[in-house]
Amino acid sequence: MNLDAAVETYRVESLELLDVMEQSLIALEHDTANPELINAIFRTAHTIKGTGGVFGFDPIVGFTHQVESLLDRIRQDQLSADSGLIGLLLDCADHIRNLLEPVIAGHPLSGALTGTGQTLQAALARYIEAPIAATATRSGDDHAAGADTPAWHLSLRFDPAILQRGLDPVSLFNYLNGMGTIVRLVPLLDQAPPLAALDPERCFLGFELSYRTDAPREAIESAFEFFREDGTLQLVAPGSPLSDYARLLQTLAESTGQAGELLLRTGTLTPAELERILTREDTPVAAAIPPPPAVTQTRAAAGQAAPSPGHKAADRHFIRIDSDRLQLLINLVGELVIAGANTHLLARQARAAPVVESAANLIRLIEEVRNIALGLQMVQIGSTFQRFQRVVHDVSRELGKEIELHISGGDTELDKSVVEQIGDPLMHLVRNAMDHGIEPVAERLALGKSRHGTVSLNACHDSGSIVLEVSDDGYGLNRDKILARAVEKGIRPAEAVLSNADIYALIFEPGFSTADQISSLSGRGVGLDVVKRNVEALRGEIQVESEPGHGTLIRIRLPLTLAIIDGFLVRVGNERYVIPMDMLVECLEYDGQTRQQSTRQGYLDVRGEVLPVIRLADLFSVRSTRTERRENIAVVRYGHQRAGLIVDELLGEFQTVIKPLGALFSRLATLSGSTILGSGEVALILDIPGLIHHVMTRELS
Amino acid sequence: MNAVAAPLELALAGELTIYSANDLRNLLVTALDQARDVRIDLGEVSDIDTAGLQLLLVARRELAQQGHRLLLQGHHSHLTDLLTLYQLLPDTPPHEP
After folding, report:
1. Least packed by Cβ within 10 Å: which of A212, A384, B36, B77?
2. Residue A321 pLDDT more than 80?
């Protein structure tokens, strides 16, 4: 059975819902009366509670129920969402998040967790039980009819496979009974085959229910939420016009012969009402199906028929995929790329034109598959950015500063594994910007700045990398202070001459901190070097820009994906090297004249620009097989810097799967990995940022 | 129609759930071949789910088509609500075992 999968879906969806709740709560702080936000928060709590109830996760249900009650009072304007209340609700969201793992795993709750729960519940209860001023009568009016309210009618159909997925309609009924009373349920057997032909693990039952509850329509619908992909729900509100029932009858009649009798058996309609529908139905209503807008508009408040299945499908475009399976696919596509390249190579060597053509076609298709497969791994950075709203909210309060987070480029996509690993470094930079970057309010006002400090997160694509920027409008870096500290800590000798960029980069050195006061948040001098290490582990790079008095910008440049690169294959002697395609700018001839020039000067004049060059044969101590034939230069670029690599031969474009080098080679700054060529030979992948850095430091020394 | 034949007595035990549904289906198919009322004692049944309830409902439908009845008895009180909900019990509250 797939109960585990269902529970896992619940866990993932709950975490997402909690994110939504958190973001909405923070937005609510600036927009306290926005009913859409309040409703969104209410819905998240309700869904977590509802589906939790389906699985019998009582601690979650019990706690979330309290939260929901409080939210309900906010929704009904009995309470206003001040910042204290929002803070409490944020804590509650955290608590639900913490409950998820142990409750789902079936572990007993730890003492600390239980304690937090009780404290929060007590705080919630104070709000919930606070006296209501003028609104008490209102809810009475809403449900004037009380227990005699005519019941809702629910018409449920399920996908036969639900039982095999570990879902049982019984859990739904139990939940409905918790929220109201199922007056009568009629199981429908008309879809069930004879016993001898019945697959007993599939559900052929349909259900017609009359259901009495004070809960609103959306509460009933959200109880059904978890079954939404596995069935349909039709809902007719109590007191709906008979035309609504007429439509229900019409749809029921399509599947069962005795629709009218069914509604009598559930008690939804009285015989007199049925009579009236049937006598009227024969002419106008039946003819008017599918119903014209006039019918739906008759009682907009009481709600139209439940959303049609088509509508449900439309807002359900996503399927979840196990990331392991995705990884397997991507690995296989990687192997396919290598195998395709091999076929292509063999075909060319055999000089069999039709086979070459066929192989080329194959490679084109593999390339498309590869792009799509990699695209599956791409996620938007936005949700990671959004998570920082909470951090900024909490930390700015803790620091007594007023700080806003500004997010842009949230729709930029990057590899999921990169997103997962970049969260911590970003967190550190954001905290650092808030703690050390932004001035306290009084100081800002004295400087003539706005009260609110701003921390900005930005993401964009730039020449095959993704760029993430964390910036603030605070102090800016103090060049002299950093230099003094670096000398004091012995990181740089006092006499070193450094550019501004070099000095700013010092803040990422181990053991460096200029904070005069150590705060609990970021500064103990153990932080930014970790950020640098993490970013470099992702083959990324950090740059710092700063303007004193105006703020600091930290730019992280990362490769788009870690798995496969488009490479350009070059040969030096008997060795082959791969240059990542997105860093290759152009290829130049290296003939006698330019050769002499570069040997003399160490750089080339390319259309009036200086291009430092490096001979790969020298760098890697490879015996070059160059004859008097011309050599070639591959011009590479990273960021704003360019360099020329002198090679024996240009072999052309080549798609390749990166195989990381072992830990033994981790100190090789100029190589980033290896790959296996179609011929079975190994080629080394050049680490262009490392190479450029190497060239630049050589230039300086 | 053989109305005088005594009901076929079945005593079920354990769980009437999706895990045992195949066995229960086969048992019921055999029972239905007897062309008489079927009385099932649920005294030893600990749990029941929609798969089990569905089989009982379908069995009752087929017995009814033959002109016979399905009678359930002896169930534990914690199953009462569910059997009632699925309309497998007469509307009058069942006799508590």
Report:
1. B77
2. no
Tell me which chain B residue has its CA closest to the CA of residue A192. Answer: B58
Whether A195 and B51 lie within 8 Å, measured CB to CB: no
Identify the three-state secondary structure at position A34. Answer: coil
Show residues of chain B in contact with A198, CB under 8 Å. 25, 54-55, 58
Distance from CA of A206 to the nearest CA of B (A): 10
The answer to whether residue B71 neighbours chain A at the CB level (below 8 Å) is: no
Q: Using the beta-carbon criterion (under 8 Å), do A196 and B85 form an inter-chain contact?
A: no
Question: With an 8 Å Cβ cutoff, are B59 and A189 in contact?
Answer: no
How many residues can be counted in chain B?
97
Buried b (16+ CB within 10 A) or exposed e, B58-75: bbbebbeeeebebbbebb
pLDDT exceeds cutoff 60 at B79? yes
Interface contacts A/B by beta carbons within 8 Å: 66
Question: pLDDT digit string (tens) for A605-633?
Answer: 788 888 888 888 888 888 877 665 678 88
Higher pLDDT, A269 or A315: A269
pLDDT of A660: 66
CB within 8 Å: A195 and B24 = no
DSSP string, A232-268: EEEEE-TT--HHHHHHHHHHHHHH-S-HHHHHHHTTS
| Contact status, residue A492 vs residue A506, Cβ threshold 8 Å | yes
CA dihedral A634, A639, A640, A641 (to 10 degrees): -40
> DSSP 3-state assignment of A460?
strand
Would an 8 Å CB–CB cutoff place B26 in contact with chain A?
no
Residue ranges and CATH numbers for the domains of chain B are 8-85 (3.30.750.24)
The pLDDT score that the predictor gives to residue A523 is: 41
- CB-based contact (8 Å) between B21 and chain A? yes
Q: What share of chain A is helix, strand, coil (3-state, %, to 5)?
A: 50, 20, 30
Check B86 against A185: CB less than 8 A apart: yes
* CATH class, A384-559 region: alpha beta
pLDDT tens for residues A46-86? 888 888 887 888 888 888 888 888 888 888 777 787 878 88
Min mean pLDDT across A65-69, A343-347, A536-540 is at A536-540
- B32 contacts on A by Cβ (under 8 Å): 195
Q: A189 and B57 in contact by Cβ < 8 A?
A: yes
Identify the closest residue of chain A to B24 by CA–CA distance.
A200
The C-alpha atoms of residue A668 and residue A300 are separated, in whole angstroms, by 69
**Which residue does chain A place closest to B61, by CA atoms?**
A189
Quick one: pLDDT at residue A295? 32
| CATH code for the part of the protein at A3-132 | 1.20.120.160
Which residue bears the tokens 């009016």?
A141
CATH superfamily of A564-700: SH3 Domains (2.30.30.40)
By the CB < 8 Å criterion, does B82 face chain A?
yes
Distance (Å) of CA A432 to CA A161, A355, A426, A553: 52, 59, 10, 12
Find, in chain A, the residue whose alpha carbon is nearest to that of B82.
A170
Which of chain B's residues have a Cβ under 8 Å away from the Cβ of A168?
A: 49-50
Predicted local distance difference test score (pLDDT) of residue A256: 58
Q: What is the pLDDT of residues A224-257, one digit of tens each?
A: 777 777 788 888 887 777 777 777 777 777 665 5
A186 touches chain B (CB under 8 A): yes
| Cβ–Cβ gap B58/A182 under 8 Å | no
